[in-house]
Amino acid sequence: MNKHYLQSQIKSSGTTYLLWFFFGFHYAYLGKWGLQILYWITFGGFFIWAIIDLFTLSGRIANHNALIFQQIDEIEKRDRDAEQARNLAMLLAAKGN
Predict the structure, then answer these.
(1) Which residues, 6+ apart, have CB-to-CB distance to 81 below 8 Å?
(2) Structure confidence at residue 97 (pLDDT)
(3) Which of 8, 29, 60, 97 is the most exposed place for a label (fewest CB within 10 A)?
């Protein structure tokens, strides 16, 4: 995955709560279309699910963003390792001459 693409996938808690309040569209925003359709069909779990979401959305956003941050860290580590390997190869090549 591309680091810039992953950064664009980081979600905002403010946007998520606005989508929850106005449209009930918060699961789609987080990329969970199956839950979103179920949420709409059951009218937010007869509004019980909607109330529970009010208190659990921040945790869902944190989990979503944590996975993205982990992937970004892995990409950055791989890039750093590749840069160190290139630098070492250049140093060894220069030393060999």
Answers:
(1) none
(2) 62
(3) 97
